[in-house]
Structure formats: structure tokens, C-alpha cells
Design a protein that fits this description.
Order of helices and strands: HHHHH
Largest sheet: none
CATH architecture: Up-down Bundle
Number of helices: 5
Number of domains: 1
Helix content: over 70%
CATH class: Mainly Alpha
Distance between the termini: 95 Å
């Protein structure tokens, strides 16, 4: 007997949207901390670069404290934003699933008795618990990880694009300037000396 093929259609999850929109403050808090943690994730490599480039220079040895403090501040912001993002999305997932279960139980209680003659109650309750747990997993963690990854990817692409254009403009300007420079008539390398005898 073959295993039934799993559906990859996510349209049924749209029915969860009204349950999500009941908790707009939690949704807004999650989005705010998601953006903050993504920005901190993208800033962290720059903080490390600044610390290495400027913090370890012999000319300004006391600056290393300042750059280490900046790096630690970015790491703390990242940790707090990630913790708050997880808190908001977990709380949102729990509340959505509680509302979903209440709505489903209320619907089951209003069904006609003939429905319960053709369907086993234990199977319905088991299915109700299992399916709402899957919804909680999607709302509470899977969607959060997917949205965080997309936001970080978009931010990284924007940063890469801005750096790429900057590098391209600088290289183009350098190539143009070197092509316009007057030609040298003397050799840049000194002539070799004859060997001593």
C-alpha cells in the first residue's frame, strides 16, 4: 500500500489569517523585533570589520576598547531582539491555536447527530488536536524562520548591491583616470647596474 502524497498547497492556511489579525499588537511586536534582529545580523560583520581594521592599529591603540564595546553592543541587541521575536511569535502561536480550537469545538457541538453516527468521536478529537498542533508549528516557528530568512536575504542583497555599485563606480573612475593619464617616456624601473668585477 503506497503512502498518500502530501499536499504542498498552502491556501488552506489563509483561513488562519483572521485568527492572526485578532492579535495585531503581538503581530506588530514580532515584525518589529524581526526587523531589528535582521538588521543586527547584517550589522554584526561590519562591527567585526571595524574592530579588526581600526581597533588593532598601533597608531590608535586605545581605540580597541571602543570598537570592542561597539561589537558587544551589536551582539547584545541581536540577542535581545531574537529573544523578543521568539517570545512574540510563540505567544501569538499559542493564542491563535487556542482560538482555533475553541472555534472548532464550538462548531463540532453545533453539528447534527447524524454526523457523529458516521464519524467516530475519538478520531475527530485526535485529528483536531494533531491538526491544531501543526498549525501552531507553522504559525509559531516555521513561518517565523521563513520570514526572518527572507528579510535577511533581502537586506543582504541590498547591502551587496550597494557595495557592488560603489566598487564598480570606483573601478570605472580609476580606469578612466588611468586611461587619461599622460604616457610616461621614462622607464619606471631603473636600469640594472653592471656586475662588479
Amino acid at each position: 500500500m503506497s503512502e498518500p502524497e502530501k499536499s504542498r498547497d498552502i491556501r488552506p492556511l489563509v483561513t488562519v489569517l483572521p485568527f492572526l489579525l485578532r492579535y495585531r499588537p503581538l503581530l506588530g511586536g514580532w515584525l518589529a523585533f524581526l526587523l531589528l534582529s535582521s538588521v543586527a545580523t547584517l550589522v554584526l560583520p561590519y562591527a567585526v570589520r571595524e574592530m579588526i581594521d581600526h581597533g588593532f592599529s598601533a597608531a590608535n591603540a586605545e581605540a580597541i576598547d571602543r570598537y570592542f564595546l561597539g561589537l558587544i553592543a551589536v551582539a547584545i541587541v541581536l540577542a535581545l531582539a531574537t529573544a523578543m521575536r521568539y517570545f512574540f511569535i510563540s505567544l501569538l502561536g499559542e493564542r491563535v491555536v487556542a482560538d482555533l480550537r475553541s472555534t472548532l469545538y464550538a462548531h463540532l457541538l453545533r453539528l447534527d447527530l447524524s454526523f457523529f453516527e458516521s464519524n467516530r468521536t475519538g478520531e475527530l478529537l485526535s485529528r483536531l488536536g494533531t491538526d491544531t498542533e501543526l498549525v501552531q508549528t507553522v504559525v509559531g516557528s516555521s513561518a517565523s524562520v521563513a520570514v526572518r530568512s527572507i528579510v535577511t536575504l533581502v537586506g543582504a542583497t541590498i547591502l551587496w548591491g550597494s557595495r557592488w555599485w560603489c566598487c564598480r563606480c570606483c573601478c570605472s573612475a580609476g580606469a578612466y583616470a588611468s586611461s587619461r593619464a599622460p604616457a610616461r617616456t621614462e622607464s619606471p624601473m631603473p636600469a640594472p647596474r653592471p656586475p662588479r668585477s
